């Protein structure tokens, strides 16, 4: 008997964009999924062999990479940061558009040139991506890991610069920060566990195609 398929979805802003695709692919979660007071993390669906877990965006990649979930939706920022060999991202879902960028206080911009940096200290929840980005041009980056409230770091003297996701830039502006360097454009992808794709090929390829059709329909 085949194990039930577990779909890992991220909490937060991407979830609202992901759910139309999930539903268009034929998966309807039980009513509690949409109840903000429901504290469960694991939900049944209209399909007896498919369930959904709702976890932090960074944890989606881990659940899929280690086979606890067969399939999931994760941002490219998460995929880039972890670099799990077991993750396969066959489909860009064209949702969750934002960018990964370097920002610093507006007061520094006039006399600061990123091209002249040789070593910097940066607050970020993306230390691996940040180090690789700067190492590629010979800059040594000391990364201070924060999981949130990144924008506070410069004003409280933790460091002068941050690397974070930027969508509209409103949060940066509200905290006196300015984007000074682009690292990567980010969208969200369908991710699959490579080993499970080999052992449950027809099933998982079928779901990849369902999500592909749902994504194309949404873009039309």
Kindly summarize this structure in a few lines.
This protein is of the alpha/beta class and 220 residues long.
Write out key terms for the chains shown.
220 residues, alpha/beta, nine-stranded mixed beta sheet, 9 helices, 34% strand, elongated
SSE layout and pairing:
Elements: E1 5-10, H1 13-24, E2 42-44, E3 50-55, H2 57-65, E4 71-75, H3 76-82, E5 87-105, H4 106-109, E6 119-124, H5 127-135, E7 140-145, H6 152-155, E8 161-166, H7 170-174, E9 177-193, H8 194-199, H9 201-219
Parallel strand pairs: 1-3, 1-4, 6-7, 6-8
Antiparallel strand pairs: 2-3, 4-9, 5-8, 5-9
Helix pairs in contact: 1-9
What does this structure look like?
- With 220 residues, the chain is α/β, with parallel strands linked by helices.
- The protein has helices at residues 13-24, 57-65, 76-82, 106-109, 127-135, 152-155, 170-174, 194-199, 201-219; strands at 5-10, 42-44, 50-55, 71-75, 87-105, 119-124, 140-145, 161-166, 177-193.
- The relative contact order is 0.20.
Strand arrangement, major sheet? 2-3-1-4-9-5-8-6-7
Count of helix runs: 9
User: Which series of helices and strands comes N to C?
Assistant: EHEEHEHEHEHEHEHEHH
Q: Point out poorly predicted stretches.
A: none
The residue fraction in helices comes out at 25-40%
Terminal CA distance reads 38 Å
């Amino acid at each position: 008997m085949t194990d039930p398929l577990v779909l890992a979805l991220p909490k937060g802003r991407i979830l609202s964009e992901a759910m139309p695709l999930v539903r268009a692919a034929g998966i309807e979660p039980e009513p509690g999924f949409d109840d903000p007071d429901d504290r469960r993390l694991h939900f049944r669906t209209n399909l007896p062999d498919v369930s959904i877990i709702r976890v932090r965006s960074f944890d989606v990649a881990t659940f899929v990479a280690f086979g606890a979930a067969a399939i999931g939706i994760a941002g490219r920022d998460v995929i880039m940061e972890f670099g799990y060999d077991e993750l396969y991202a066959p489909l860009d879902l064209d949702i969750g558009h934002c960018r990964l960028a370097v920002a610093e206080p507006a007061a520094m911009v006039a006399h600061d040139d990123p091209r002249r940096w040789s070593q910097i200290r940066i607050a970020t929840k993306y230390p691996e991506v940040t180090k690789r980005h700067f190492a590629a041009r010979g800059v040594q980056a000391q990364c201070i890991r924060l999981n949130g409230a990144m924008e506070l770091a410069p004003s409280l003297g933790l460091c002068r610069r941050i690397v974070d996701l930027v969508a509209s830039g409103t949060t940066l502006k509200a905290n006196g920060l300015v984007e000074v360097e682009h690292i990567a454009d980010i969208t969200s992808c369908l991710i699959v566990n490579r080993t499970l794709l080999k052992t449950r090929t027809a099933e998982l390829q079928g779901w990849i195609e369902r999500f592909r059709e749902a994504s194309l329909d949404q873009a039309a």
